Amino acid sequence: MGLTYREVSKILQQNSEGNVGAGHVSKKREKFQKLHARARTFIGNFVKEASVPLSARDIQTALREEIQLSVTTDMIKRYLKQELQLVYKKIKPITFAHNNLPAKLQRQYAGAQYISLLAEGKTIINIDESTLDSTDTRKRGWCSKGRHNMMTHMQRLASINIIAGVSSNGDFLYTINQGRNNSQTVILFLSKLCQHLNS
Question: Which H or E run includes 156?
Fold first, then answer.
Protein backbone atom coordinates (compact mmCIF):
# COMPACT_ATOMS: atom_id res chain seq x y z
CA MET A 1 0.00 0.00 0.00
CA GLY A 2 2.99 2.27 0.43
CA LEU A 3 1.93 3.68 3.82
CA THR A 4 4.48 5.24 6.11
CA TYR A 5 4.80 4.33 9.78
CA ARG A 6 3.29 7.69 10.77
CA GLU A 7 0.22 7.19 8.52
CA VAL A 8 -0.37 3.67 9.90
CA SER A 9 -0.05 5.00 13.46
CA LYS A 10 -2.54 7.77 12.74
CA ILE A 11 -5.11 5.29 11.32
CA LEU A 12 -4.77 3.01 14.36
CA GLN A 13 -5.18 5.98 16.70
CA GLN A 14 -8.37 7.14 14.93
CA ASN A 15 -9.85 3.62 15.15
CA SER A 16 -9.10 3.40 18.86
CA GLU A 17 -10.68 6.82 19.48
CA GLY A 18 -13.80 5.69 17.59
CA ASN A 19 -14.11 2.62 19.77
CA VAL A 20 -13.73 4.69 22.95
CA GLY A 21 -16.46 7.06 21.75
CA ALA A 22 -18.88 4.19 21.10
CA GLY A 23 -18.17 2.71 24.53
CA HIS A 24 -18.71 6.10 26.11
CA VAL A 25 -22.14 6.41 24.48
CA SER A 26 -23.16 2.91 25.59
CA LYS A 27 -22.10 3.67 29.16
CA LYS A 28 -24.14 6.84 29.03
CA ARG A 29 -27.18 4.80 27.96
CA GLU A 30 -26.57 2.35 30.79
CA LYS A 31 -26.88 5.17 33.31
CA PHE A 32 -30.46 5.79 32.29
CA GLN A 33 -31.40 2.14 32.33
CA LYS A 34 -31.31 2.54 36.12
CA LEU A 35 -34.03 5.16 35.81
CA HIS A 36 -37.35 3.37 36.19
CA ALA A 37 -39.50 3.17 33.05
CA ARG A 38 -42.41 4.73 34.96
CA ALA A 39 -40.15 7.61 35.96
CA ARG A 40 -39.08 8.19 32.35
CA THR A 41 -42.69 8.27 31.16
CA PHE A 42 -43.75 10.49 34.06
CA ILE A 43 -40.93 13.01 33.51
CA GLY A 44 -41.67 13.26 29.78
CA ASN A 45 -45.38 13.91 30.37
CA PHE A 46 -44.73 16.22 33.33
CA VAL A 47 -42.39 18.45 31.28
CA LYS A 48 -44.74 18.45 28.27
CA GLU A 49 -47.79 19.45 30.30
CA ALA A 50 -46.04 22.03 32.53
CA SER A 51 -47.26 25.61 32.12
CA VAL A 52 -44.45 27.11 34.22
CA PRO A 53 -40.63 26.69 34.21
CA LEU A 54 -39.53 23.57 36.09
CA SER A 55 -36.54 22.75 38.24
CA ALA A 56 -35.09 19.29 38.90
CA ARG A 57 -36.31 19.63 42.49
CA ASP A 58 -39.90 20.17 41.27
CA ILE A 59 -39.73 16.99 39.18
CA GLN A 60 -38.15 15.05 42.05
CA THR A 61 -40.96 16.11 44.40
CA ALA A 62 -43.64 15.19 41.85
CA LEU A 63 -42.08 11.74 41.32
CA ARG A 64 -42.05 11.08 45.04
CA GLU A 65 -45.59 12.35 45.71
CA GLU A 66 -47.44 11.09 42.64
CA ILE A 67 -45.85 7.73 41.77
CA GLN A 68 -43.81 7.06 44.96
CA LEU A 69 -40.39 6.88 43.25
CA SER A 70 -37.17 8.36 44.67
CA VAL A 71 -34.79 9.71 42.02
CA THR A 72 -31.78 11.95 42.60
CA THR A 73 -31.78 15.44 41.10
CA ASP A 74 -28.48 14.70 39.35
CA MET A 75 -30.03 11.77 37.46
CA ILE A 76 -33.05 13.92 36.56
CA LYS A 77 -30.79 16.69 35.23
CA ARG A 78 -28.75 14.26 33.14
CA TYR A 79 -31.91 12.65 31.77
CA LEU A 80 -33.42 16.04 30.83
CA LYS A 81 -30.21 17.19 29.15
CA GLN A 82 -28.89 14.07 27.45
CA GLU A 83 -32.04 12.09 26.67
CA LEU A 84 -34.74 14.76 26.24
CA GLN A 85 -32.25 17.30 24.78
CA LEU A 86 -33.51 20.09 27.06
CA VAL A 87 -31.44 23.09 28.15
CA TYR A 88 -31.31 24.91 31.48
CA LYS A 89 -31.75 28.60 30.61
CA LYS A 90 -32.14 31.83 32.50
CA ILE A 91 -35.82 32.66 33.07
CA LYS A 92 -37.04 35.87 31.46
CA PRO A 93 -39.97 37.27 33.45
CA ILE A 94 -42.88 38.68 31.43
CA THR A 95 -46.39 39.66 32.43
CA PHE A 96 -49.36 37.42 31.67
CA ALA A 97 -50.71 40.08 29.30
CA HIS A 98 -47.77 39.53 26.94
CA ASN A 99 -48.91 36.01 26.08
CA ASN A 100 -52.70 36.12 26.25
CA LEU A 101 -54.80 35.76 23.11
CA PRO A 102 -55.55 39.49 22.50
CA ALA A 103 -51.84 40.33 22.70
CA LYS A 104 -50.95 37.55 20.24
CA LEU A 105 -53.65 38.72 17.81
CA GLN A 106 -52.43 42.32 18.08
CA ARG A 107 -48.86 41.23 17.27
CA GLN A 108 -50.08 39.21 14.28
CA TYR A 109 -52.13 42.17 13.02
CA ALA A 110 -49.20 44.56 13.49
CA GLY A 111 -46.88 42.15 11.64
CA ALA A 112 -49.34 41.95 8.73
CA GLN A 113 -49.56 45.76 8.61
CA TYR A 114 -45.74 46.10 8.64
CA ILE A 115 -45.40 43.66 5.75
CA SER A 116 -48.08 45.51 3.79
CA LEU A 117 -46.38 48.88 4.34
CA LEU A 118 -42.97 47.52 3.39
CA ALA A 119 -44.45 46.04 0.20
CA GLU A 120 -45.72 49.53 -0.67
CA GLY A 121 -42.17 50.88 -0.34
CA LYS A 122 -42.77 52.67 2.98
CA THR A 123 -40.01 53.00 5.59
CA ILE A 124 -40.67 51.87 9.18
CA ILE A 125 -38.66 53.32 12.08
CA ASN A 126 -38.62 51.51 15.41
CA ILE A 127 -37.85 53.84 18.35
CA ASP A 128 -36.71 52.87 21.84
CA GLU A 129 -34.76 54.33 24.75
CA SER A 130 -32.13 52.98 27.11
CA THR A 131 -29.83 54.06 29.95
CA LEU A 132 -26.05 53.72 30.32
CA ASP A 133 -24.75 53.80 33.90
CA SER A 134 -21.20 52.49 33.40
CA THR A 135 -18.47 52.26 30.76
CA ASP A 136 -18.45 48.45 30.90
CA THR A 137 -21.75 46.56 30.73
CA ARG A 138 -20.42 42.97 30.78
CA LYS A 139 -22.21 40.70 33.28
CA ARG A 140 -20.06 37.53 33.08
CA GLY A 141 -16.47 36.65 32.20
CA TRP A 142 -13.94 33.82 32.43
CA CYS A 143 -11.35 33.81 35.21
CA SER A 144 -9.09 31.40 37.09
CA LYS A 145 -10.47 29.25 39.90
CA GLY A 146 -10.22 30.88 43.31
CA ARG A 147 -9.95 34.42 41.91
CA HIS A 148 -12.60 37.13 42.06
CA ASN A 149 -13.87 38.36 38.72
CA MET A 150 -13.49 42.12 39.15
CA MET A 151 -13.12 45.15 36.88
CA THR A 152 -10.90 48.02 37.99
CA HIS A 153 -11.19 50.21 34.89
CA MET A 154 -14.99 50.60 34.92
CA GLN A 155 -16.33 54.12 35.46
CA ARG A 156 -19.78 55.07 36.72
CA LEU A 157 -21.75 57.42 34.47
CA ALA A 158 -24.12 60.12 35.61
CA SER A 159 -27.23 58.58 34.03
CA ILE A 160 -26.55 58.85 30.30
CA ASN A 161 -29.75 58.19 28.33
CA ILE A 162 -30.09 57.26 24.68
CA ILE A 163 -33.13 57.57 22.44
CA ALA A 164 -32.61 55.76 19.16
CA GLY A 165 -34.47 54.74 16.04
CA VAL A 166 -33.63 51.96 13.58
CA SER A 167 -35.28 52.09 10.16
CA SER A 168 -36.26 49.17 7.95
CA ASN A 169 -33.53 50.37 5.56
CA GLY A 170 -30.85 49.90 8.23
CA ASP A 171 -30.42 53.57 9.19
CA PHE A 172 -29.55 54.23 12.84
CA LEU A 173 -30.61 57.60 14.29
CA TYR A 174 -30.00 58.51 17.93
CA THR A 175 -29.58 61.24 20.54
CA ILE A 176 -27.62 61.08 23.81
CA ASN A 177 -28.90 63.01 26.82
CA GLN A 178 -27.64 63.48 30.36
CA GLY A 179 -30.36 62.87 32.91
CA ARG A 180 -33.58 60.89 32.73
CA ASN A 181 -35.78 60.60 29.68
CA ASN A 182 -39.31 61.94 29.91
CA SER A 183 -42.08 63.04 27.56
CA GLN A 184 -40.25 66.28 26.74
CA THR A 185 -37.03 64.54 25.66
CA VAL A 186 -39.02 62.07 23.52
CA ILE A 187 -40.97 64.90 21.85
CA LEU A 188 -37.68 66.73 21.18
CA PHE A 189 -36.22 63.58 19.61
CA LEU A 190 -39.28 63.14 17.39
CA SER A 191 -39.17 66.77 16.24
CA LYS A 192 -35.44 66.49 15.42
CA LEU A 193 -36.12 63.19 13.64
CA CYS A 194 -38.81 64.82 11.49
CA GLN A 195 -36.45 67.69 10.62
CA HIS A 196 -33.76 65.21 9.61
CA LEU A 197 -36.14 63.14 7.45
CA ASN A 198 -37.53 66.23 5.72
CA SER A 199 -34.12 67.74 4.99
Answer: strand 156-167
